[in-house]
Design a protein that fits this description.
single chain; three-stranded mixed sheet; alpha+beta; 9 strands; about 240 residues; four-stranded antiparallel sheet
């Protein structure tokens, strides 16, 4: 009579260990692929936001002394996705806040479900004066640094607008439900500068200063900006606004 022999417990344990090792080896590359895809999606969203800011400026104008002037949207300070109402002088309530994504007609959160930070020079958002096709007498006030040490705005000085995704870890970011993935207290200086959290202890100490550099374990923000020259050339090519 033939005896049917099954697997012993030891053999089954060995098989399970091998399967676990194989799955573990595949999981990390898969996780990295997912993260890379989300970063790519967010970069594309930031490009769309960049273009939508230019589109807004193209379509929002005021004529001053016979000259057509354009302006950028106000930051969203109450998290409703709409730009804030300007005061009687045409100024926004704040130079920094959330992205007015509904106003711009773009996606309101990055690939990790967190809202974007948006800042704009108040001279460029004023809807009673606006900007024209030549550089303003006073340079834009937003600066991009390579670190929160703020030695010099070597990445890009004097920009009219900045948009920040707070990255895969979303440290201190406001998500779409209103919470923060990681408390601001755990955020390193470079990211704290972009969050405008406890910046009084940082060399920059200003809501108009931002940091952008290669991602590290402590910094994973994705930052885009509009330069004055790009804005002028796109909105008023060849001085077409005059």
């Amino acid at each position: 009579m033939t005896v049917q022999r099954g697997f012993t417990l030891i053999e089954m344990a060995i098989v399970l260990v091998i399967i676990t090792i194989l799955i573990g080896g595949l999981a990390m590359p898969l996780s990295a692929q997912i993260q890379a895809r989300r970063i790519g999606e967010t970069r594309k969203s930031l490009e769309a936001i960049h273009d939508s800011l230019i589109g807004y400026a193209m379509s929002h104008t005021i004529v001053v002394a016979g000259v057509t002037r354009h302006y950028l949207p106000c930051p969203d300070t109450n998290n409703d996705g709409l730009e804030e109402t300007r005061d009687v002088s045409g100024n926004c309530p704040s130079a920094r806040g959330g992205l007015p994504w509904i106003t711009l007609g773009v996606k309101g959160d990055d690939a990790w479900g967190n809202r974007y930070t948006y800042a704009a020079d108040l001279g460029y958002t004023n809807n009673l004066t606006g900007f024209i096709s030549t550089p303003m007498a006073t340079p834009a006030t937003l600066d991009i640094f390579s670190s929160a040490a703020c030695a010099a705005p070597e990445v890009m000085p004097d920009v009219p607008a900045v948009v920040v995704s707070h990255g895969p870890q979303g440290r201190g970011a406001l998500n779409m439900s209103g919470g923060t993935p990681l408390a601001p207290a755990s955020v390193e200086p470079d990211e704290r500068q972009n969050l405008n959290v406890a910046i009084g202890s940082l060399p920059c100490a200003s809501l108009t200063k931002f940091v952008s550099h290669t991602p590290t374990d402590n910094f994973d923000d994705l930052v885009v900006w509009l330069s004055s020259s790009e804005l002028f050339n796109r909105v008023c090519p060849s001085g077409g606004c005059l």
